[in-house]
């Protein structure tokens, strides 16, 4: 049995954050006599005014009965829990039981937890000192030892999460509430975006987590991994999932999105902007200024080496980009980040990962048929499965996409609320030429090839040599002065070509269609101007045309 399916089967037996229907967006856990009529009340009002459905227990009566029914259901049914740690929070056994339930939901459902430190030190909560020590002196004599220890454990665990402290807002409650509101909206938006595309992500996520050792909070080494794959295979979605799942266990975190694109659009200025983002994100500041790339590198080396950070560098394709973040050669790639830091690089370029010496590379996998049908259906039908009358048409689209998430999303969204005749028409179009939005993403890898010879090698393989022995193809192309030994290796590193166990050159169908589309585009659709002919009817048409005497065409 496919291990991914086996894992998926076991995982689906319990609720997941992507399938569960949430009753509330936020659950507020707090000590009533400390903050109900003040800070927590104002926070609840601010959330409600912004359209966020937040649960606030305002029932002071019959609490013992309430906590075992509606209260636990409210915790279980909330996307985010906010814990307001105040001076007498730990005095209440009800609050501590709430906290146990919250941390259980975090583990079981992936619920986001945001601790707030309201006029208390995080270290007092984490180590049960100060007022928290006094509270536990009382609990020791009233409750079972195991229960008290469980309370201590969850306090330590919750206080270790990345949270917000009133002191950082200079004691200004309105400013503090605005900051919390912004964080909640960011979390909710990210969860909404990810939940749509989390189909099949669980087994892939687990594979990456094991590779990077991200859950080993006691680890002091700096680890760096790459997520490698062709365009549209889901590298960024996987990286975002890692970021959202684990960001709160690090002192600092930064997601640097679209690095290649930002670098290409602004060159050095784009890198300076990304350097500023990295520094400001991890140091939790908004005032760090960077005048040049070199100055940014110096600041990163000086300021980040004491911070345990999670850094995602998304869609990098050149060593210059990584060097701007103080990630240089194999020997020095990790020197400038604090102990326990984790760095994840998504790329289409295996050679780039080799240059910086990553600790491991995860090759992003396409979707199996079951996963592909579900992802496509979510975009085409807003459901986990297709409407019955569209089932056969959906399967034809799935076959065309060959497990590529990008294609499934693009075509699913395009076909949404279109009738069957329009679906048929689109499928006919796809037989003639690939969808432009899909090709645009795939072509980035082709356009980024470092040499024109490598581009010609790719076009030759896409037109003639798929499924043929690599060594045999190398001989043929070397005879055309293509230096194919290197050229084919470059194509493999750029995720444009793969080699099967039988040493056959293979290529994703959509990459093949993209390559042939480039030949068609360059000739403006006229077979007589094609640089390569691979269709029988085009070859016959050109050879039968007496007006064509000579032409530089490959067959």
UniProtKB/TrEMBL annotation:
Q: Which SUPFAM superfamilies match?
A: P-loop containing nucleoside triphosphate hydrolases, Toll/Interleukin receptor TIR domain, Winged helix' DNA-binding domain
- What keyword terms does UniProt attach to this protein? Leucine-rich repeat, Plant defense, Repeat
Coiled-coil-forming residues are none
What is this protein called in UniProt? Answer: TMV resistance protein N-like
> What Pfam families does this protein map onto?
NB-ARC, TIR, WHD_ROQ1
| Residue ranges of domain TIR in the record | 22-188
Q: Does the keyword Cell membrane apply?
A: no
| Keyword Signal on entry | no
Phylogenetic classification of the source organism: Eukaryota, Viridiplantae, Streptophyta, Embryophyta, Tracheophyta
């Amino acid at each position: 049995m496919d291990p991914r399916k086996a894992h998926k089967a076991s995982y689906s037996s319990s609720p997941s954050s992507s399938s569960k229907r949430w009753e509330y967006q936020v659950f507020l856990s707090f000590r009533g006599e400390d903050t109900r009529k003040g800070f927590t009340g104002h926070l609840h009002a601010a959330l409600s005014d912004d359209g966020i459905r937040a649960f606030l227990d305002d029932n002071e009566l019959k609490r013992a009965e309430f906590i075992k029914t509606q209260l636990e259901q409210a915790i279980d049914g909330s996307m985010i829990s906010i814990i307001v740690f105040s001076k007498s929070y730990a005095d209440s056994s009800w609050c501590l039981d709430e906290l146990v339930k919250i941390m259980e939901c975090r583990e079981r459902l992936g619920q986001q937890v945001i601790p707030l430190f309201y006029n208390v030190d995080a270290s007092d909560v984490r180590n049960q000192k100060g007022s928290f020590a006094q509270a536990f002196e009382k609990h020791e004599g009233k409750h079972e030892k195991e229960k008290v220890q469980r309370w201590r454990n969850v306090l330590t665990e919750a206080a270790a999460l990345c949270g917000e402290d009133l002191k950082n807002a200079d004691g200004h409650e309105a400013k503090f509430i605005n900051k919390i509101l912004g964080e909640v909206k960011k979390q909710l938006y990210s969860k909404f975006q990810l939940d749509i595309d989390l189909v099949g992500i669980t087994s892939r996520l687990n594979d990456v987590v094991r590779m990077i050792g991200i859950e080993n909070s006691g680890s002091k080494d700096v680890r760096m991994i790459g997520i490698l794959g062709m365009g549209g295979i889901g590298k960024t979605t996987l990286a975002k999932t890692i970021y959202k799942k684990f960001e709160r266990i690090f002192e600092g975190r930064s997601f640097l999105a679209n690095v290649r694109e930002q670098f290409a659009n602004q060159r050095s200025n784009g890198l300076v902007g990304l350097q500023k983002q990295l520094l400001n994100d991890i140091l939790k500041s908004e005032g760090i200024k960077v005048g040049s790339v070199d100055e940014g590198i110096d600041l990163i080396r000086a300021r980040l080496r004491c911070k345990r950070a999670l850094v995602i560098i998304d869609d990098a394709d050149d060593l210059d980009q990584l060097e701007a973040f103080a990630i240089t050669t194999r020997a020095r790639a990790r020197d400038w980040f604090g102990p326990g830091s984790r760095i994840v690089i998504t790329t289409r370029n295996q050679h780039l990962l080799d240059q910086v010496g990553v600790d491991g590379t995860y090759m992003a996998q396409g979707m199996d048929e079951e996963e592909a049908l579900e992802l496509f259906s979510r975009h085409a039908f807003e459901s986990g499965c297709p409407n019955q009358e569209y089932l056969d048409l959906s399967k034809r689209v799935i076959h065309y996409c060959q497990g590529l998430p990008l294609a499934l999303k693009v075509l699913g969204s395009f076909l949404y609320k279109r009738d069957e005749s329009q679906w048929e028409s689109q499928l006919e179009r796809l037989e003639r030429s690939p969808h432009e939005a899909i090709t645009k993403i795939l072509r980035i890898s082709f356009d980024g090839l470092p040499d024109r010879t490598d581009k010609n090698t790719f076009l030759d393989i896409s037109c003639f040599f798929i499924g043929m022995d690599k060594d045999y193809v190398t001989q043929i192309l070397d005879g055309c002065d293509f230096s194919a030994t290197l050229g084919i290796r470059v194509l493999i590193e750029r995720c444009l070509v793969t080699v099967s166990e039988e040493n056959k050159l293979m290529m994703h169908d959509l990459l093949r269609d993209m390559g042939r589309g480039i030949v068609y585009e360059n000739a403006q659709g006229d077979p007589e101007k094609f640089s390569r002919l691979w269709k029988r009817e085009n070859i016959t048409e050109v050879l039968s045309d007496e007006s064509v005497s000579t032409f530089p065409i490959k067959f």
